[in-house]
């Protein structure tokens, strides 16, 4: 297995560019395909790209907030002590790899945003405390659990189609969660992955101690103080301004108000989504950091984690706009679905979804452009709509293991490069693909 991962790691080292370069190349490739395959005029393609470029602006902000403020929350003394308690009995690299994978998987099953942050933070702490941990592998291991979001409580497509008034309700009706993420095949898949991914990651541990790359503690955790606050503490000590900066009362009042809103939000029956998670992270962080000055100083450290997100996510929004405007999604789907039968449609659906996810990596946007065609194909072939919808969702979650769009948060938290961990996530992708395709194939034959 070390030879396999070594092969993929070396391959990525030689040929895989940085995520921003990858986004540029993918943009140019999509434009060329839209012109050559779909016959769209270059000017129209460029127009679609420009119009859609800021289509993920709200989502970009959500991701920036969850990364930066999630980092602040993780750095709070109380949370830091709780995480230390979680990992205090872990002393071997293998146990560290298992814990990082399980935490990343369970957290992602609960909510994808929560999983992205918590998995990376726990992996970093384990790499810092446990001697001999191969740092790129433990970061990749924590991220491998992210695929569980596709069958978890925040899986976008199953949640959307279970809600009255969704865009395709007239075409397919509503599908209860008991027929998608809470169906016994999907619950079984989740259990299988939660057991096998940690074992796979242990198998990927370097056998030669010389191949182990440990975390650079000094470079990673060097604190970054806020110059404005540091200056104020020396030049304005004892002033009203400084007392407000250091006021525990202000933090307590605004923090409690925020949490009261959260309670009221859930009492009214509202769902758990990214916005409310960000709201919770923000106000819990304010309470735990105790003063506005402490919060701002710690947030300055977390801001480093969001630069890649802010820069690159708009390029993926432009990609999705080209895919939708040119009809490339329909062309790719038809290429796979045209040879499908009722039993093979889910399998061909997941493969086509995997390919499309390189160009449209947001599950919501992915469903908007691929969903109508897939559901129509299911109706014409007499294939189960719930299985077809889950095929699209699983293809999305499967591809995310090698999709730089979603790897960016893990890279930002770890300060590693894409080529450092992609060799491992390719192996994860292969195994998860086997599990997903086998599960869909078996499910389709037990109609």
Describe this structure in words.
The structure is a single chain. With 447 residues, this protein is mainly alpha-helical. The protein contains 24 helices and no strands. The protein has helices at residues 2-15, 19-36, 42-52, 57-75, 77-87, 93-110, 112-129, 135-144, 156-161, 169-172, 184-203, 217-221, 227-235, 240-245, 248-267, 274-289, 292-302, 307-326, 328-337, 345-356, 363-381, 385-399, 404-414, 418-444. The protein is globular, with a radius of gyration of 23 Å. Keywords: Membrane, Transmembrane, Transmembrane helix. It comes from Paraburkholderia fungorum. One of its GO terms (cellular component) is plasma membrane. The chain crosses the membrane at residues 20-41, 53-74, 94-123, 135-161, 181-205, 249-267, 279-297, 309-329, 335-360, 421-446. Pfam families: SCFA_trans.
